[in-house]
Amino acid sequence: MLSLRLRCLFQNSKNLTRSHKSNFHFSRITNVRKEFTLNKLSVLSTQNVSDLKRLFATIVKNNPQKDDQGNEMKIEITERAVNKLLSITSNDQDVNMVLRITVDSGGCHGFQYFYDLTPISSLKEEDVLFENNQAKVVVDTISLGLIKGSKIDFSEELIGSQFKVIENPQAASGCGCGISFEAKI
Description:
Blueprint: H1 2-13, H2 18-57, E1 59-62, E2 76-77, H3 79-91, E3 97-105, E4 111-119, E5 127-132, E6 135-140, H4 141-147, E7 151-157, E8 160-166, E9 171-174, E10 180-183
Parallel strand pairs: 2-7, 3-6
Antiparallel strand pairs: 1-5, 3-4, 4-10, 5-6, 7-8, 9-10
């Protein structure tokens, strides 16, 4: 709406006399800056919408869980992780493979992430299955309590490529390699 008003100001400036145009020039520059800022904000809000779409693209397919406050415990599978999981399963000719994430005691900060590709037929009763675009991640209920709200990502670095739990709101701190973390208690 404000952008529309600014465009009207530009069109109305054509009707000004020469004496008014010099005074209006500064105002027009200010309005251009406002419109540019508004366009930047609309780009940011578009990015936030795409982030929300990606967050809600990860759905719970099996055994949804709630925390003590009644909130649904979820994780997000990023686009990079989805692409890598789909690539792995298509190469193995077995689309029934899932990425299992387990958290266990150990590592240099108290808890450690473990990743394993397992057949979907090995799911246990307490496992929670997440899916994003046919890429599947399974987490047991105890581990889910320690990674809820996190993102599952795939990173390729000079030291190697790996799946990672990133942006874990349950972690107070972590090691540099991202394998272990200290839980908030």
